[in-house]
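Input chain follows. Return structure tokens only.
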Amino acid sequence: MPHIDYFFSTLSPFTYLAGNRLEEIAEARGATITYKPMDILALFPRTGGIVPQERHPSRLEYRMQEIKRWAKKTGMPMNPRPAHSPTNAAPSSYAIIAAQLSGGNVGPLVQAFLRAGWAEEKDIARDDVVRECLGNCGFDPSLADSGLLTGAETYAANLEEAVKRGVFGSPFYITDTDERFWGQDRLADLDAHLAGKL
């Protein structure tokens, strides 16, 4: 059975724009997924990147155009300049880690946090938002409290693993054969690879 390690940030607009396509691909190809939320703002300087706030205006303008184009292509509601961006991604990430350890289906929870930040004008660093997302996705809202220590340790470990394995952005997908795919615009390539066509 193929496996995908999914490195991502709940702050990433392109991770939001991936929607549930990864989960659809995994289901179609019989693949499993391990969700690995990471600190994207700490990853960038360690892998040759620049945090968005410090990028050249031409790069920021192009990024904004791409976000708007992809929102139209996917039909996903989106505010490309949300009220709470950037915010602290740790609380949502800890909740995802705790939910995954509990054995539930984490895909909808990841998407709930991304949608909250990029389409619903919510601050995913707030405890009430974290609890709401957990509850709406069938998880015990108390995971927001019980998973803090493990969440912090795993979140830090995910960053170190990402650096070691060649991750430099979000979303980033690595197969069990170490094939790497960066960006929601490479999901078709990931699918083709899992199908043995690429």
